[in-house]
Amino acid sequence: MTWQSIQTNLSAKIGANAYSLWISPLTGETVDDKTLLLTGPDSFFCGCVKEKYLAAIEQCLAQSGVHGMEVQFRTSGKPLPEPPPEEAQMRLPTMPVVRQFTKTLNPRYTFDEFMVGGSNMLAHSACSAIADDRVDLGNIVYVNAGTGLGKSHLTHAVAHHIVNEHPQTRLHYLTAQQLTAEMVKEIKANTMMNFKRKYQKQCDVLLIEDVHTLSGRVKTQSELAETLDVLMESGKRIILTSSKAPCDIADLDEGLRSRLTYGLITTINPPGLETRLRIIRRKATIHGLCLPSDIAEYLAENVKGDVRKMESVVVSLKAQAALFKVKPDLGMVKEALQAVIGQHRQMSAEMIRDFVAGQFQVTINDLQSKSRKRLVAFPRQVCMYLARKHTELPLSAIGQAVNRDHSTVVHAVRKITEKIVRDGSVRGQIELLSDKLEKKFL
Questions:
Q1: Same domain, 130 and 190
Q2: Is residue 90 assigned to a domain?
């Protein structure tokens, strides 16, 4: 009786048109005199009513003498009846008709399944804030990451979160290639106003992947720059992903490049050992594979970079274990590793020394000399630090590569570690060199 008793007041409060559009389709029932349960046709409809009219419903309840009653929503699963052709449309013109992109989202790419570590913490925090419509880190995020490091996982997670928690939000998720194809289609049909209306007027959240593929596409770059201007001015949320930083994308209009650097730019680096271990254990759990601790740790030490390769190795182990009805052993793991990532190359101190010499443009003789000039001493310390980080060699073997003893190696590792903490420039150099090392030798 409570729902019927407040509908007249509710109609007067929000207006007859809004009442007919949003309130009439609802059915209500009181549960235990504590909860008013309102049933709508789908989650999108209920989300809109909750956001727009929940306060008005609660005010009408209070005016009718009902205090402290909680209002909850549920869906009936039954769609709204189609209006007769002669009636005006029932959907607001600014509301999207259908979320066609949802079928392209990977159901496992959610925030719960994303393994957070030092290499991706900022990107995860920024995307979480965008999903929750918080302005902690701004409304625009540019995620730069190599293949398989999680940039698509994060954009899918944002889309999943918004669709599930805020279904009334007008969200567009697509790749830069899809954006180009859609624009070309509209140009051929002479209907570019539809394109502009969709992405500039009917958009609250825009997620575009692989922005680097716009290289050389002048017309798409121009349209995207215009769209970003409109969305930025109206405070909309934007996430862009790429395998390259904006400054490294070739054949990119400087106006668009400037807009890409307007917000937060965050880089996802290859995960560290601890994060890789958590990822591998999680992948094993998902695939129902029992991995002994020593096997999981061996995999974490040898599979670096692309998370997809980690899952591929786990799937291969699962298949072999099921086929032979045995638990995974080290031999099986090595076979799976060779199939997925090829022959593993073990880095040596000499390989790292030669690499560092080339990067800093000094000679190997310089690194092995007794010179204490900064131009030589700093690269030498970096060499010892990287060898300690990327190999399991004893200190004496590391020192031998640059003609030093083990105590000098300990001193070098400590000095570089201190500089990484204090100096962002040094930290950036070490991260870049580590990344290049892994790509070159592993």
A1: yes
A2: no
Q: Are 300 and 281 in contact (CB under 8 A)?
A: no
User: Can you give the pLDDT at residue 100?
Assistant: 57
Q: Which of 304, 302, 308 is CA-nearest to residue 283?
A: 308
- Residue ending a domain, choose from 225, 252, 268: 268
CA distances from 386 to 153, 195, 379, 406, 442 (A): 30, 51, 10, 15, 14
The verdict on 112 and 258 lying in the same domain is: yes
With beta carbons less than 8 A apart as the criterion, state whether 378 and 349 touch: no
Domain for residue 96, yes or no? no
130-170 per-position pLDDT tens digit: 999 998 888 999 999 988 899 999 999 999 999 988 888 99
Could you give the count of Cα atoms lying within 13 Å of 106 in the half-sphere of its Cβ?
Answer: 14
For residues 161 and 52, membership in a common domain is answered with no
Which residue, 125, 176, 119, 117, is CA-closest to 154?
125
Instruction: Give the count of domains, the chain.
Output: 4
- Same domain (yes/no): 277, 329: yes
User: CA-to-CA distance for 281 and 303, rounded, in angstroms?
Assistant: 13
Distance between CA 409 and CA 395 in Å, rounded? 6
Angstrom distance (rounded) from CA 256 to CA 262:
10
Band of residue 309 on the pLDDT scale cut at 50, 70, 90: confident
Domain containing residue 187: 101-268
- pLDDT band of residue 98 (cuts 50, 70, 90) is very low
What are the helix (H) ranges across 167-306? Answer: 176-188, 192-196, 218-233, 254-260, 273-286, 293-302
Q: Which tens digit of pLDDT belongs to each residue from 283-306?
A: 999 889 988 898 898 888 888 778
Q: Are residues 137 and 189 in the same domain?
A: yes
Q: Is residue 405 part of a domain?
A: yes
Q: 163 and 66, same structural domain?
A: no
Where a domain ends, among 268, 287, 322? Answer: 268
d(CA 298, CA 16): 67
Would you tell me how many other CB atoms lie within 10 Å of the CB of residue 350? Answer: 14
Residues 113 and 202 in one domain: yes
Q: Give the pLDDT score at 79.
A: 47
User: What pLDDT does 22 receive?
Assistant: 83
Question: CA-CA distance, 262 to 141, in Å (whole number)?
Answer: 9
Same domain, 112 and 249: yes
Two structure tokens written together for 430: 């070490």
Band the pLDDT of 67: cuts 50, 70, 90. confident
